[in-house]
């Protein structure tokens, strides 16, 4: 993963260990869980403006599938395409890693993610190794919408 520079002086880059505290503050501010973030940090991308972390999206790899998680943008930076840039970057990173399918849980953005190719699926259709993540086990409510997107590298069906 390399740095990507966007309009407005924002850059996207891989998260570093030094970003963890700011990343967790942003997720908490956005009412998103931080369970498992530390362990999956190497799959996270952050948006930075100057010295400030203004957005984040994470990829938690589970064998040959992954969980798209922790997509958050500071309120003052929303509605400017930053969330879209973060999600697009994480999808691209997943495809570059040979990930078969991406899964996500959401309680608020089920209308946002279909524009990236995600479709709603049943919770029981998610592969066991993805269901074993902290996000599935305890961090997100059972009422959360579950969505899936096959990656461009995938020729196999995604339900498992």
Low-pLDDT parts are 154-160
Number of domains: 1
Q: How much strand content do the residues show?
A: 25-35%
What would you give as the CATH superfamily? Answer: Gcn5-related N-acetyltransferase (GNAT)
CATH topology: Aminopeptidase
Instruction: Report the sheet with the most strands, covering strand number, pairing sense and barrel closure.
Output: 8 strands, mixed
* Tally of DSSP β-strands: 8
Order of helices and strands: EEHHEEEHEEHHE
Major sheet: order of its strands? 1-2-3-4-5-6-8-7
Question: Would you give an account of this structure?
Answer:
The chain has 160 residues and is an alpha+beta fold. It has a single domain, classed as Aminopeptidase, CATH 3.40.630.30. The chain is built from 5 helices and 8 strands. It has an 8-stranded mixed beta sheet with strand order 1-2-3-4-5-6-8-7, sandwiched between helices. The longest helix has 15 residues. The C terminus is likely disordered.
The gist of it:
With 160 residues, the chain is an alpha+beta fold.
């Amino acid at each position: 993963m390399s740095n990507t520079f966007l309009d407005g002086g924002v850059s996207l880059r891989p998260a570093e260990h030094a970003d963890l505290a700011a990343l967790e503050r942003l997720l908490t501010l956005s009412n998103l869980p931080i369970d498992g973030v530390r362990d999956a940090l190497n799959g996270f991308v952050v948006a930075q403006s100057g010295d400030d972390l203004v957005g984040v999206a994470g990829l938690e790899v589970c064998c040959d599938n992954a969980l798209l998680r922790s997509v958050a943008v500071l309120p003052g930076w929303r509605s400017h395409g930053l969330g879209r840039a973060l999600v697009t970057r994480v999808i691209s990173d997943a495809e570059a890693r040979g990930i078969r399918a991406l899964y996500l849980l959401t309680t608020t953005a089920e209308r946002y993610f279909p524009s990236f190719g995600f479709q709603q699926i049943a919770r029981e259709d998610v592969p066991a190794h993805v269901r074993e993540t902290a996000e599935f086990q305890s961090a997100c409510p059972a009422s959360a919408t579950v969505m899936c997107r096959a990656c461009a590298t995938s020729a196999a069906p995604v339900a498992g």
